[in-house]
Each structure stands twice: as C-alpha cells, then as structure tokens.
Design goal:
The structure is a homodimer. By secondary structure, the first copy, chain A, is α/β, with parallel strands linked by helices. Chain A has 2 domains: 6-122 and 312-324, ATPase, nucleotide binding domain (Nucleotidyltransferase, domain 5, 2-Layer Sandwich), CATH 3.30.420.40; 131-308, ATPase, nucleotide binding domain (Nucleotidyltransferase, domain 5, 2-Layer Sandwich), CATH 3.30.420.40. Helix content of chain A is 40%, strand content 22%. Chain A has 10 helices and 13 strands. Chain A has helices spanning 42-60, 99-106, 116-127, 187-191, 193-205, 212-219, 226-234, 238-262, 272-292, 313-324; strands spanning 6-12, 16-23, 28-35, 67-74, 76-79, 84-88, 95-97, 110-115, 136-141, 145-151, 154-155, 266-270, 303-306. Chain A has a 5-stranded mixed β-sheet with strand order 3-2-1-4-8. The longest helix of chain A is centred in the last third of the chain and has 25 residues, at 238-262.
C-alpha cells in the first residue's frame, strides 16, 4: 500500500487567501483563511500566503516536513512551467513574480502554480461533482464567469495554455460590454453577478419598482450580492425575476454551445450565484440548453449539475495537481 | 520499410458521390465522381457508391484485392462502432442503414463510416493545412456550416460522439433562425451561404439595388452561389459588401469564442464560401478574432488559414481513418 502523501493547496484571491492541507485522496485535513490585503504589495501578500499555510498545518496537525508539494491557484496569467505569476487581476504589482521560488525558500517542496479557476475545475473533477466522469466543462458564475475544461480526464489547456476561458464565449454579439476588460456580448457580460447587478441598477434608476434597495439597506451593503438576489427571487420580486430569467436563458444558450462543440459527459455549475440560487437557476439552464443542443432527442442527455466543493474546490485541485508533479 | 497500403475513401453527399483510391501517405492515386440520385432510394445510392469506387480503382489502376480498407463520410448521424448510418440530411430513406455490411459484401475489407465533415477535418489535419499541428478547429463555410475539432492529434468526438458541431455555436442569441433545422442565432444562421442568401434576397425584395439579379441571370441560376458572391464583391456591389462584411464579423466572433475556450494551434477555414472569397474574407475573420480573443496581446497568435484540399479533404480523411483501423 502506497503511503499517504500531503500537500498544501492555496487559493489566492483578491480579497482572501485560503490554504488547506490535503492528502493524496483529496481529503482536507485542516485549513486557514486570511484577508489578502493586496494593497500592501507583493512581498506582504507572499508573507500572508506563508502565514495561511502555517496556520493550515497547525489546524491539520501535520508537520511541515511531511508536506511533499505546494499547489497555488491565482487569478490571472501564470507561466506554470517556470512557476512565475505573469499578471494578476485585482492584485496590484503582481507582474513577473517568481512565486514558486519564494515558496520554496519557505519549504523546499514541489511547487505548482496555475490559474485559480482551472485549479477549482480540477478539484471538482477529482473530488467533487465530476467524480468518475472523463469529460466535463466547469462554469463558475460569480462576480465574473470562469471555468475549466477536462477532456479524457485531463485539463485541456490549449496551445498557449490559455484554453478554458468559458466566460469569454460570445453569446449575444450585439449585446452589452462586460464590466472590466471582458468581451462584448460574452457570457460574462450577460450573466455574471456584475452583469446582473448592472441591469438591475439600470432598471431601478429608470424607475422600476423592486425590493432590492430595501434588502440592501437591511444587509447594510452597497452591493447586490448573490444572497440578496436569492432573497429577492424567494420574495417573487418582479424585476429580479425578469433579469435573472434573462441571465438564466443566456447561461442555457452558453451551455448549448458548449454541448454542441464539446459534447462533454457533465456540465458543472458553481460560484456564488449558483450557490445562492441553486436548482431554481439550474433547472432553467437545463431547459434552455436541451432545447438548443443539437442532439436534443438524444436519450443519453448531458448531466447538468451543481458543483459540490464550494470554495474548497480551488485548494483541493491545487493540492492534487501539485502532488501529481511530485 | 512498411509496404504501402491502399484504401478507398468515399464522400457521400446529397447531390454527388466522390470516391478516391488513397495510399497510407494520403496521396490520391485516382478518383471518380458520380451524381447521388438520392431520390432513387437507399439501394440505388449504395450501388452508385460501389460504381464510384470501381471507377476510382480503374482510374488509379489499382486492383480491388489490394484495397485494405474503405472509409465513408456521410452527412448525418452515424453509429461508427456498428457501421450503421442512423439518419442522413438530404438523403431520403437513410435511416438505420447497415452501410458497412453492404460494402463488405462488395469487398471484404475494413469499413469505417463517420460524419462527412469530421472526415474532411481529419483530411485537412493529416494532409492539408493542419499538417504538423497538434490541435486545430476546422470550419467549413458552405450552404451550411460544419467542421471538426482535433486535439492532441486526434478528433475530439465527445461523450455521445456528437462533438465538433461548430456550426451550432450560438453567437447572436436574439438573431435570426437558421434555414432548415438549425439553431436560432447559431453561426450557421448568421454566416452560411444560405444565411447570406436569405439576407441578400430580403434586402433586394425591400428595394435595395444590387447587381446580383443580373449576375444570376447571366449564370442562368436561381441560387446566389459562392462564385456569384465573389463576383459581386469584386465589382464592389454595395449590398453584397455590406452583407458579407456582417457575415465576416460573425465568423470572426465565432473564431474568438473558439480561441477563448480551446486555444487551438490553428484555425482552418474551408468550404465554398471560403474557396470563392479566400483572403478577402479570411483577413476580416482574423482581424475580428484577434480583437475579441482574450489573449489578444499574445505574441504567438493562433494561425487562421485556408484549407488546402478542397473537396478531396473528405475522401482523404475517410481513407486514412479506415487505414488506421486495419
């Protein structure tokens, strides 16, 4: 029997860092969460990554020298072969940072760095809703839309390692621009939480009635969060229902496109919007997808299911990818 | 040195049957073309396939018993594992036809049957514009839009063998319906020759001036063929330019979506519309694609090139796939 191996998985985000000690079966033995404090600069953030890793070790009661590998998912462009972060979204100063070298000076293990959503997609494949399936597309619907593609049990990364940008498929060519640097008419510009919030605010500014302003006051927030969206849907707020149904339709058309070109075994949906709205949203996505998928009369329909790991998908995926490289 | 092997490749179409004798290097040694006469029924069409194969053998001066395999590409749903044609577009009566068994009763060789555009995509990969590249998407723009996806040097066929339907990616969700049984807002409904013809006819019916009616009278045809489109573009016909530029923009957005999710090494364009309009169309597709591809500043841009094999792609692909199975 092979001995159990341990890795640290890190999910580096713009606002928080999640670290976990994970074994080679994908079990999380301990974890820690810290604020990123990205504004303090690269060096300070690296120190906080190390701190989070040490706290996760403590939580898991695993000794540092039992750790064989460290995997990091980061939100941006990564040169995985060299372990260099090329450029991160929402983390100022992160350009050409030799993160693998820095982490190895803390602990001389195998270090693997890759894109955060790609790591999370791998987590869902290996230990979440994609267990046992050989091909899948994972779509995370949150502030933005990202995801990953697994084909023949491996992530499809493409020729320049930039494949899997499922948020940037163009679904409504003459539709709205994305918030940020996204693509006009891309699914992120149509159905992300940011896009939904943009449409809701525009309608309210134009005089449409809605309980959303009241819900935001109650929760003392300026943001139309995913949980506020869910609350408004549960209360049958007409404006929210209308905007969410439009977003669901676009997500269903996006799913149909993915099915028509990739014919995956499973489509997995995660992220804050899905976590808050769950089956109410998924059932609409399924309906539109099957209606527009080419082989709609196929008996053996693609499974469209919810992700299972929540925000642990990233650390589990990162740890398992890193252990693969040992 | 391995001995040269020979196969017959067949491209079964709604109006014509192309057969060729092809060696294991993808060289065409001889070929024959016959009308399909689909209206005469399944048995008559199978006889014409055999006739075309015999004429190709004669043209190549290769003996029937030197043929190790027969590959057939057919326009519709195929159960490749059983060698059964499930359902063909534009060929009445082709439901659950055991084509492999019929062909083996003519010649007891290995018979492989698959979708026609998938066979043509494999032809372009192995012997055409995709030689040497390991991942590619092939897009044929003709009366409809079809194609195929090659990843890691193999066709990606998907979980239910229905992947690669690149003509049914939704690009303009609220756009027009396809002619036939296509999908609303799918690229086939926006940029196929049928879609272009639909838009041109509507504009002419609404009173727009164009030289197209005159060109059709000259060519004695009721159809706005690809070569008539090319003629009208060469004469700077304002309406044709406008409609073609819109189609080119949609093809460019479609290419951007493909690049963003699959990041292939090469994108290959073939089919009648591309053959007639060539670089004039491709340069517009490239410009829009690079503008909307996520990694647009990437130095190593995806190559977007024209297919090289014309209507021989299908027979070459079919023959090589069949030889692989020997």
């Amino acid at each position: 029997m092979a001995a159990t191996k341990y890795a640290i998985g890190v999910d580096l985000g713009g606002t928080k860092i999640l670290a976990a000690v994970v074994d080679n079966h994908g079990n999380v033995l301990g974890s820690a969460k810290k604020s990123t404090q990205a504004e303090k600069g690269v060096e300070a953030v690296i120190k906080r990554i190390v701190k989070a890793a040490e706290e996760a070790l403590d939580d898991a009661n695993v000794k540092k020298d039992h750790i064989a590998a460290i995997g990091v998912g980061a939100p941006g462009l990564i040169d995985s072969a060299r372990g260099v972060v090329l450029n991160l979204t929402n983390l100022p100063g992160w350009r050409n940072v030799e993160l693998a070298r820095h982490l190895r000076s803390w602990h001389p293990a195998t270090v693997v760095i890759s894109n955060d959503v790609r790591m999370a997609a791998i987590g869902e494949h290996r230990k979440g809703a994609g267990r046992g399936a050989h091909s899948m597309v994972v779509v995370f619907v949150g502030t933005g839309i990202g995801g990953g593609i697994i084909l023949d049990d491996r992530p499809w990364v493409g020729f320049r390692s930039s494949a899997g940008e499922v948020g940037h498929m163009i679904i409504a060519a003459d539709g709205p621009f994305a918030i940020g640097n996204g693509i006009r008419g891309g699914i992120e510009a149509l159905a992300s939480r940011s896009a939904i919030e943009r449409d809701l605010r525009a309608a309210i500014a134009a005089g449409r009635k809605s309980i959303l302003p009241e819900l935001m006051r109650e929760k003392e927030t300026d943001t139309i969060t995913s949980s506020i969206l869910a609350k408004a849907v549960s209360k049958n707020d007409a404006l929210t229902m209308e905007v969410m149904r439009r977003a669901a339709r676009y997500l269903g058309l996006h799913a149909a496109s993915l099915i028509n070109i990739l014919d995956p075994e499973v489509l997995i949906y995660g992220g804050g919007v899905i976590e808050s709205l769950g089956e109410w949203l998924l059932s609409q996505i399924r309906e539109v997808a099957f209606e527009h998928a080419l082989n709609k009369h196929h008996l053996n329909k693609v499974r469209i299911v919810e992700a299972e790991l929540g925000d642990r998908a990233g650390v589990i995926g990162a740890a398992l990818v890193a252990l693969d490289a040992v």
